[in-house]
Amino acid sequence: MAARHFLLAAALRAAYFGACALVWMVTRPWLDEGEPGTAFLLLMNVVTFPAGLLAAPVLAAADWFLARAPVLNETPTWFVHFAGYVVAGYTQWFWWAPLALRGGKSRLPAGRP
């Protein structure tokens, strides 16, 4: 039973990262000189919904701070957005959702911190 659960968890994670990679490859945000493309942002919001909606203002603030950094910053905007959306979606689907489905109970035994 534990092996089947592990394989299912691994398959779901692979599907999530595959969907993110597919969005990245199909929209090719690295070709855009300015802001990330609308299709890229829309599809990443779909993959990470609803956490993507919460991540969007945080990523916009990160762009603002990176643009005003005193050190020359060559990090492309699309990379910041892609990484932020991937982390937000992963956190949502593989941390928050399982915790909510378990009713907020941790997997750790009661005697451990």
Describe this protein's structure:
With 113 residues, this protein is mostly helical. The protein has one domain. 69% of the residues lie in helices and 0% in strands. The chain has 4 helices and no strands. Helix 2 packs parallel to helix 4. The longest helix has 26 residues. The radius of gyration is 17 Å and the shape is globular. The two termini are 26 Å apart. The model has no long low-confidence stretch (mean pLDDT 83).
The secondary-structure class comes to mainly alpha
Nearest-angstrom radius of gyration? 17 Å
Poorly predicted spans: none
Share of helix, binned: 55-70%
What share of the residues does DSSP label as strand, in percent?
under 5%
The dominant shape is globular
Can you tell me the number of structural domains?
Answer: 1
Task: Show the helix and strand layout.
Layout: H1 2-27, H2 38-47, H3 51-67, H4 77-101
Key descriptive features of the protein:
4 helices, globular, 113 residues, mainly alpha
Quick overview of this protein structure:
With 113 residues, this protein is mostly helical. The protein contains 4 helices and no strands.
